[in-house]
Design a protein that fits this description.
The complex is a heterodimer.
Chain A: H1 2-23, H2 27-43, H3 49-63, H4 66-74, H5 83-106, E1 112-121, E2 124-132, E3 137-147, E4 150-158, E5 161-162, H6 163-196
Antiparallel strand pairs in A: 1-2, 2-3, 3-4, 4-5
Helix pairs in contact in A: 2-3, 4-5, 4-6, 5-6
Chain B: H1 2-23, H2 34-40, H3 43-54, H4 83-111, H5 114-127, H6 129-138, H7 142-157, H8 166-169, H9 180-186, E1 194-197, E2 201-204, H10 205-217, H11 220-223, H12 227-244, H13 248-255, H14 259-276
Antiparallel strand pairs in B: 1-2
Helix pairs in contact in B: 1-10, 4-12, 5-12, 6-7, 9-10
The chains are: A alpha+beta, B mainly alpha.
């Protein structure tokens, strides 16, 4: 009887521990894992530019929540769009965000990234990072939210400038003048342009 | 001191007028200027915010209700009544950048070793230390102000006329950007209409007027005291800055659907962030 009780207790503890260690990844842990992976890819000399981009894309897609980003970018217009339009927008927008983010990260290949701190507020958190370069320190903050046991990025704030707020105001302005279809057409044109001009 | 106050008043007066006039039409933020914020936040926007959060259970967003992400949305609406004019200047700046400034900057980037470029940047930054010192003090940030004074002393002497930045490297005293535009904002002056300045780029009525104050406190015109040498110095500073810069503008142009809008919003957010800190 006692033995059984002890065993149950032990099993309970073990279960509790595994759960703790599982849920134990902090926002900074998650962001750091992805950022480190990306810097690793950028430094990998065996990969050509295309190979690097492809691998970076995988890392980014695991960490960035493009649907949350799309929703926040379209704001009130999100619910005015049909499911099909939403899908289209998310597909185009994720390519643009990815390209823009990769472009920025690529400029800082050989630099060191520091993690001065994080602020957690319920299911939301801000992970502060500082890119140390020879000419300046660039603060890049990641806004993340908890989804399951992961923290996903829903905005990137560079030197106080939120990528999503920025997209939101530009896109709303374009939608006002050219409608949602006009916006989608512009996004597609930009993606084609990015694909045809190697940066 | 009297002169200082006078300049300050001259800068502020036309602005307060334009600022109060413009507040009706737009907001920079709810928090930045609490005095202006209450009346400035148009009810329409508030409505939009809450509206946007309730119906997010569309089938496509199957897994999660993400409306909780929206609450801290910082809505930055830029008041831009002179958009056509601004876009003209923007076009001009774009051409000046790609056809004149950038080629020269690239040449300089190739020619000068990076330490020299950084030295020149530090030198000009050090000459602008009084701008940061005075404006931090005017906003009651006396610790920051003291830091700037220390930085100026250390970097002018140990840093050989400001070419080096031992204050940061060895003593860990960081530079903090403060300028007259931020001081004006601190005292409740709204940004006023958005403005694109020739060569200098994004600004607004308040920050543009702030440049007058910055000019007054800067030591650059003191050291380069003829108008020719002043303009040469300013041009050298800008070219040198562009040589160090990692092609930010090219990136923006490549990424955004409308670089004008992107920069307009980025500038407003950037300034807001500086004002709040």
């Amino acid at each position: 009887m006692l033995k059984q009780f002890l065993l149950t207790l032990m099993a309970g503890f073990m279960l509790a521990f595994t759960m703790i260690s599982h849920a134990g990844s902090t926002p900074t842990d998650d962001v750091r894992t992805s950022v480190d992976a990306m810097l690793e890819i950028l430094k990998n000399e065996q990969l050509d530019k295309e190979g690097k981009r492809a691998q970076m894309s995988t890392v980014i897609n695991e960490r960035f929540d493009f649907r949350a980003m799309s929703q926040r970018t379209l704001a009130t217009n999100w619910k005015k769009t049909t499911d099909e339009e939403k899908k289209q927008f998310v597909a185009l927008f994720s390519q643009l965000i990815e390209s823009s983010y990769v472009g920025k990260i690529e400029a800082y290949t050989d630099e060191k990234v520091e993690y001065p701190g994080e602020k957690v507020k319920g299911r939301k958190a801000v992970v502060e990072t500082l890119i140390i370069t020879s000419s300046a320190d660039v603060p890049v903050n990641y806004k993340v939210y908890q989804k399951g046991d992961q923290w996903l990025v829903y905005d990137v704030v560079i030197e106080g400038v939120s990528l999503i707020s920025n997209y939101r105001s530009s896109y709303q302005e374009i939608m006002k003048k050219e409608g949602f279809d006009g916006l989608l057409a512009k996004m597609q044109a930009k993606i084609d342009e990015l694909a045809s001009t190697p940066s | 001191m009297k002169k200082l106050l006078l300049i300050f008043l001259i800068c502020t007066l036309p602005l307060t007028v334009s600022a109060t006039e413009s507040r009706r039409g737009f907001i920079e933020t709810y928090e930045a200027e609490p005095a202006a914020g209450e009346e400035a936040a148009p009810p329409v926007l508030e409505e939009m915010e809450t509206e946007g959060t309730d119906e997010e259970t569309a089938p496509f967003m199957d897994d999660d209700d993400l409306s909780f992400l929206d609450e801290e949305d910082d809505v930055v609406e830029v008041y831009d009544p002179f958009e056509t004019f601004n876009r003209g200047i923007f076009w001009f700046n774009d051409k000046a950048y790609f056809y004149v400034m950038k080629p020269v900057a690239k040449g300089w980037r190739w020619l000068a070793p990076e330490p020299l470029q950084l030295g020149i940047r530090n030198f000009f930054s050090n000459l602008r230390a009084p701008i940061r010192f005075v404006n931090a003090a005017l906003q009651g940030k006396f610790l920051d102000s003291g830091h700037e004074l220390t930085r100026f002393g250390v970097n002018t002497t140990l840093g050989i006329g400001g070419l080096f930045d031992p204050a940061e490297v060895h003593f860990g005293i960081d530079k903090k950007i403060e300028d007259t535009g931020q001081t004006l904002a601190h005292y409740g002056v709204g940004p006023g209409p958005y403005l694109v300045l020739p060569f200098l780029g994004p600004s607004n009525f308040r920050d543009g007027a702030g440049l007058l104050g910055d000019f007054y406190f800067s030591l650059v015109p003191v050291v380069f005291d003829s108008s020719t040498s002043y303009w040469v110095a300013i041009s050298a500073d800008i070219i040198n800055f562009l040589a160090i810069d990692k092609d930010t503008y090219e990136g923006i142009k490549r990424d955004s659907l409308d670089p004008y809008l992107f920069l307009r919003d980025a500038y407003s957010q950037y300034r807001l962030n500086l004002i709040l800190h």
